[in-house]
Design a protein that fits this description.
heterodimer; A: about 120 residues; mainly alpha; 3 helical TM bundles of succinate and fumarate reductases; about 80% helix; B: about 240 residues; alpha+beta; Ubiquitin-like (UB roll); Fumarate Reductase Iron-sulfur Protein, Chain B, domain 2; 5-stranded mixed β-sheet; two-stranded antiparallel sheet; 9 helices; about 30% helix; about 15% strand; elongated; heme (chain A); Succinate dehydrogenase hydrophobic membrane anchor subunit (chain A); SQR/QFR_C/D (chain A)
Chain lengths: ~120, ~240
């Protein structure tokens, strides 16, 4: 039996599912943003700000941020357990990554609802 | 003169402080020999050369090695299939500890295989003669039971290189599915529970090196996908 306590879902299956679902959300969000930029070649601040003032866009963005946070944690946790063989270095790396993800997530919420 | 330039990984822990590559010139007389023939000819030149081989026809799985960068069985790999620019580089299977020359310690590989409990488990009462299987149920084992445990797949897998103590590897997972798919086995839940953590099965990233090198043409990636489907339908 292989044990683990620092991965996101405490289970390989749940991590795998979270990784797949969050990837779909991120793909949809990226496609939407690229398409939006293509359809608004002369984009100004008012239009861009107006897009993010709408509740559905804020929900969609927050969903994408949370997906990004989960996706990054599952992926970087995997990278750390592949390549960082020293426990102290690995745990330190994981702590820095989780802190960065937390900061970016809170900051993202502030950007979406702060203006 | 059709002389083949062969470079072989040499290491004898009793006398060498570090591994090195030794060059040999082998006269093939223009024949498309198997790589194992070349190794036998090298051993005629230098009897200290160590490698494993037994059946010399791709059944026993002893002579798995890395030939010009690709894992395979030396006995069924023709020179025409691997030699480039008249050069052949022979190395031991990557990722496993080298005991001597091309001989590796397969301990970790077997340990993961053993962990998959590769034998039929059934706690229901034994029938008078034998447990029967329909032809359709038997068909499900095709492409799974043929594995000869040569380790070409697992030692070509980076996930197995980095975590050979935790990731079961393609060979072990193919065998895990061979028993999960067997209608006569009913230890399904226990087998799935052993594979649910983030390492044992889920460290597979689907790069399919295993499929590319399997000398028996088997597909461990597909078996891993099937196990993942079983885990998913079991848990959602």
């Amino acid at each position: 039996m292989v044990t683990n306590i620092t991965n996101l879902g405490r289970s390989g299956l749940s991590d795998w599912l979270i990784q797949r679902v969050s990837a779909v959300v991120l793909a949809l969000y990226a496609l939407f943003v690229v398409a939006y930029l293509l359809f608004h070649p002369n984009l100004d601040y008012a239009t861009w700000s107006g897009l993010f003032a709408q509740t559905w866009m804020r929900i969609f963005s927050l969903l994408a941020f949370i997906s990004m946070a989960a996706h990054a944690w599952v992926g970087l946790w995997t990278v750390s357990t592949d390549y960082l063989k020293h426990t102290g270095v690995r745990f330190g790396f994981q702590a820095v990554v989780i802190l960065a993800i937390f900061v970016f997530l809170v900051w993202g919420v502030q950007v979406l609802w702060g203006a | 003169m059709s002389s083949l330039q062969v470079s072989v990984y040499r290491y004898n822990p009793e006398t060498d402080s570090a591994p090195y590559m030794q060059e040999f010139q082998i006269d093939t007389q223009g024949r498309d020999l198997m790589v194992l023939n070349i190794l036998t000819m090298i051993k005629d030149q230098d009897s200290s050369m160590a490698f494993r081989r037994s059946c010399r026809e791709g059944v026993c799985g002893s002579d798995g090695m890395n030939m010009n960068g690709t894992n395979g069985l030396a006995c069924i790999t023709p020179l025409s299939g691997v030699v480039k620019d008249n050069k052949l580089v022979l190395r031991p299977l990557p990722g496993l500890p080298v005991m001597r020359d091309l001989v590796v310690d397969m301990g970790l590989f077997y340990k993961q295989y053993e962990r998959m409990q590769p034998y039929l488990q059934n706690d229901t009462a034994e029938p008078a003669i034998e447990r029967l299987q329909s032809p359709e149920e038997r068909d499900k084992l095709d492409g799974l039971y043929e594995c000869i445990l040569c380790a070409c797949c697992s030692t070509s897998c980076p996930s197995f290189w980095w975590n050979p103590d935790k990731f079961v590897g393609p060979a072990g997972l193919l065998q895990a599915y061979r028993f999960l798919a067997d209608s006569r086995d009913n230890a399904t839940q226990a087998r799935l529970a052993e594979l649910e953590d983030p390492f044992s099965l889920f460290r597979c990233r689907g790069i399919m090196n295993c499929v590319a090198v399997c000398p028996k043409g088997l597909n461990p990636t597909r078996a891993i996908g099937k196990i993942r489907e079983m885990l998913l339908s079991n848990a959602t």
